[in-house]
Amino acid sequence: MAKVLIMMADYGHDPTETAVPYSAFKEAGFDVSFATEQGNRPQCDARMLQGITQRLLGAARPVIRQYEAMAASEEWQRPLAWSAPAFTLDVFDLVFLPGGHEKSVRQVIDSAAVHALLVDFFPKTRKPGTKAVGAVCHGVMVLSEAKDGQGRSVLHGCTTTTLPARFEQLAFWGTRAFLGDYYKTYGASSGDVEDFVRKELADAAHFKGSLLPAPFVVEDENFNYISARFPGDAQLMSEKLVSLVRGLRPGKGEAA
Questions:
Q1: Which domain of life is it from (predicted)?
Q2: What does residue 80 show for φ and ψ, rounded to 5 degrees?
Q3: Which in 139, 172, 182, 205 has the greatest CB count within 10 A?
Q4: Could you tell me the pLDDT band of residue 17, with boundaries at 50, 70 and 90?
Q5: Is residue 128 part of a domain?
Q6: Contact 56, 24 (CB under 8 A)
Q7: Residue 214's domain spans which residues?
């Protein structure tokens, strides 16, 4: 049975970018675990789950039902602790990093412990390796900020996408009058996620983006790494990650 880890902050991740992949992994028969810094039960961004922000900008009703099922699961209620001294990613086939723009997600984006884990794990996804990584939106920034002793990101040399700067700016300026800098994870004057990711790549051509509403994902040629932009990509990304993991573990990707 393939083992999947979803690494999270205690609060603030996007519910669509978390619940849709989780549901796809479970449906595929994968063994899914969550991990937060101290093993606290996570909670996704409440603004994306309720109130006017949910109705205008947040998770669709079917996704909310998926989120509720996920939040009731044993693995959600009892996550692992990614800061524990003995914690390792090596026991997992896939490490998945959901996004989310709420400021609390900086707990995982900025974590030295998470960076060290990814610096060790990500090279093991080099093809034809049997490990894989998936990331969407701000989850890609967790990878771009994970740097080795020479200051080189694990994404240096990879092809990736992330939240387009134009999308981020549209959300920020379109809601600033009533939500302030809610859509800027590092504050109103900070750079866009796309800027943070682009500057860590070996070549400008390694960034792939799309401003079309149709689902869009990027699969790297040299690493078992799949990235996506925003909640609208979550279902396609999940399907491709399931297919990728099954291909890495022929005959072992489903529950017995």
A1: Eukaryota
A2: -80, 170
A3: 139
A4: very high
A5: yes
A6: no
A7: 3-248
